[in-house]
Amino acid sequence: MTEWINGIAKISLPTPFAVGDVNVYVIKGERLTLVDAGPKTEGAWKVLKEELSSLQLTPGDIDQIILTHHHPDHAGLLDFFPDGLKVYGHWLNERWIKPSDAFFEEYEAFHRQLFADFGLPEEFSPFINQIRKTLKYSCDRSLSGELAEGDSLPGLEGWRVIETPGHAQSHIALFRESDGTLIGGDHILAHISPNPLLEPPVPGETERPKPQLQYNDSLRKLLGFPIRLVYTGHGGEVTELPELIEKRLKRQHERAMKVKGWLEAEELTVFEICRRLFPSVYQRELGLTLSETVAQLDYLASIGEIVSIEGSLPVLFKAR
Q1: Are residues 215 and 80 in the same domain?
Q2: Residue 101 CB burial class (10 angstroms; 0-12, 13-18, ≥19)
Q3: Could you give the CA distance from residue 177 to residue 150 in angstroms, rounded to a whole number?
Q4: Domain enclosing residue 124, as ranges
Q5: Are residues 164 and 274 part of one domain?
Q6: What's phi and psi for 255, nearest 5 deg?
Q7: Environment class of residue 267 by beta-carbon count within 10 Å: exposed (0-12), middle (13-18) or buried (19+)?
Q8: Are residues 152 and 26 in the same domain?
Q9: What pLDDT score does 127 carry?
Q10: Would you say residue 166 lies in a domain?
């Protein structure tokens, strides 16, 4: 049974993804606000309406939606809401939630170059042509307004934005200092560490982001806030945030050092490392496992433990 706790109601919606249910949140305020929307499926819409009804609400009562980030399991149901509803989020949501043909072409070209650099065999090239299909659970909807670091939330007194890039370039968290409550999206999860997903360069830049480094920085950034309770994008709440952050950073370092050990023995491509890290799932979850592999290499390079061999294609890595 959905209930209000300190002006917040948590609703869990089914998704077609391996991660399972996604959490969205209704916040009472001058504007009744929904944080995140769920995937674009009839099943998620049905459950959302049922859970809102248990709060004596309907989708028509929602005044605005705020996105923690652009991923389909968080944004897709935007298409089910009326056109006039206000939608807010980081400016980098826009190209994902209302994608153009030019963006898809850029996205596919980015992956073609990555696959060449990573040393993927030709058999994996059809993956690139399936990228548009991965967004079928997303939406075709523009932002009404943009949110950035330190911004107050419209119609929600006492809430402000913390930018937390890493899992997505568009990622933000919402903080209420009066009681230390954070709505953290997928930046903080209780039982798993979120994937630092590879994305093309942000508009106006040519170099791809390094999401693992961003994610680590965003974790450390949260230590500067008096956060007592984190409402997460998947699973349960987090109450011991500093301890969890320490655990996440330590585990990621250990995973990376395992990769360094392999590179002390021989030079390897991204694909060769990916197969070692994820032997049973890399073919089924290629995008996720490549992102996780590159994450460890970006981290090792940032602390001076490895280098890439200049001029090699595919790119080879070795320990220093």
Answers
A1: yes
A2: exposed
A3: 12
A4: 101-134
A5: no
A6: -65, -40
A7: middle
A8: yes
A9: 82
A10: yes
In tens digits, the chain (320 residues) has pLDDT values of 789 999 999 999 999 998 999 999 999 999 999 999 999 999 999 999 999 999 999 999 999 999 999 999 999 999 999 999 999 999 999 999 999 999 999 999 999 999 999 999 988 888 887 777 778 899 999 999 999 999 999 999 999 999 999 999 999 999 999 999 999 999 999 999 999 999 999 999 999 999 999 999 999 999 999 999 999 999 999 999 999 999 999 999 999 999 999 999 999 999 999 999 999 999 889 999 999 999 999 999 999 999 999 888 999 999 99
Residue 299 contacts residue 244 (beta carbons within 8 Å): no
Q: Give ∠ CA 14-215-110 in degrees, rounded to 5.
A: 80
Residues 263 and 121 in one domain: no
314 lies in the same domain as 174? no
* Nearest partner of 159 among 131, 134, 182, judged by Cα: 182
- Give the integer Cα–Cα distance in Å for 268 and 265: 9
Confirm whether 244 is domain-assigned.
no
Give the chain as a 3 state SS string: CCCEECCEEEEEECCCCCCCCEEEEEECCCCCEEECCCCCCHHHHHHHHHHHHHCCCCHHHCCEEECCCCCHHHHHHHHHCCCCCEEEECHHHHHHHCCCHHHHHHHHHHHHHHHHHHCCCHHHCHHHHCHHHHCCCCCCCCCCEECCCCCEECCEEEEEEEECCCCCCCCEEEEECCCCEEECCCCCCCCCCCCCCCCCCCCCCCCCCCHHHHHHHHHHHHCCCCCCEEECCCCCCECCHHHHHHHHHHHHHHHHHHHHHHHHHCCECHHHHHHHHCCCCCCCCHHHHHHHHHHHHHHHHHCCCEEECCCCCCCCEEEC
Angle between helices 101-118 and 270-277 (to 10 degrees): 90
Residue carrying structure tokens 């491509």: 269
To the question of pTM greater than 0.90 for the whole model, the response is yes
CATH of the domain at 282: 1.10.10
